[in-house]
Amino acid sequence: MENDQKQTGKCIIFSAPSGAGKTTIVRALLERMDELAFSISACSREPRVNELHKEDYYFLGVDGFKEEIADDSFIEWEEVYADHFYGTLKHEVDRLWSENKVVVFDVDVYGGINLKKYFGDSALSFFIQPPSVEVLEERLRKRQTETEDKIKTRMEKAGEELSKSVHFDKVVVNTDLELTIEEVEEMIKEYIKE
């Protein structure tokens, strides 16, 4: 993927199998660190209960997402499942850099790999790993937001995603949430200072 954009800031990328805790970690870091700002991803799915357009995601629908692909509006995008697209809009990153923020991405594993390739040394990438596959399944079930079929699909995908951790700068096992947040915060502070 060619970088056709002028680099103007730094990025922090978080990826993990669904249920590993990355979104909880990202939210905690955003509350603790004023210099960070969340990059809102685009997706083709419908909003879940309590999700808002331009706050949780840019909810584009399948046709709208495909139009943005045709317009070359994305830094990266993936068809995660059939007709379930997720991606990072160029204008979103530009907006946050214009506010002198360090851009934080909460993306799937393939999105994380693509963002790291795109941004190179301007990004620090984290792979949040669950203590075990069993813990991951337990966390997905506790959410009570997924059907049995979705849980099965996510668990199959998790095995594949776990093998991709080697593509990230830092692999952090999320055994104790508070300790994980503190550990990641320290690493980010070091990176931002560079």
From TrEMBL:
<dbReference type="InterPro" id="IPR027417">
    <property type="entry name" value="P-loop_NTPase"/>
</dbReference>
<protein>
    <recommendedName>
        <fullName>Guanylate kinase</fullName>
        <ecNumber>2.7.4.8</ecNumber>
    </recommendedName>
</protein>
<dbReference type="InterPro" id="IPR017665">
    <property type="entry name" value="Guanylate_kinase"/>
</dbReference>
<keyword id="KW-0418">Kinase</keyword>
<dbReference type="GO" id="GO:0005524">
    <property type="term" value="F:ATP binding"/>
</dbReference>
<dbReference type="Pfam" id="PF00625">
    <property type="entry name" value="Guanylate_kin"/>
</dbReference>
<keyword id="KW-0963">Cytoplasm</keyword>
<dbReference type="GO" id="GO:0005829">
    <property type="term" value="C:cytosol"/>
</dbReference>
<feature type="binding site">
    <location>
        <begin position="16"/>
        <end position="23"/>
    </location>
    <ligand>
        <name>ATP</name>
    </ligand>
</feature>
<dbReference type="GO" id="GO:0004385">
    <property type="term" value="F:GMP kinase activity"/>
</dbReference>
<keyword id="KW-0067">ATP-binding</keyword>
<keyword id="KW-0547">Nucleotide-binding</keyword>
<dbReference type="InterPro" id="IPR008144">
    <property type="entry name" value="Guanylate_kin-like_dom"/>
</dbReference>
<keyword id="KW-0808">Transferase</keyword>
<comment type="similarity">
    <text>Belongs to the guanylate kinase family.</text>
</comment>
<comment type="function">
    <text>Essential for recycling GMP and indirectly, cGMP.</text>
</comment>
<feature type="domain" description="Guanylate kinase-like">
    <location>
        <begin position="9"/>
        <end position="189"/>
    </location>
</feature>
<dbReference type="InterPro" id="IPR008145">
    <property type="entry name" value="GK/Ca_channel_bsu"/>
</dbReference>
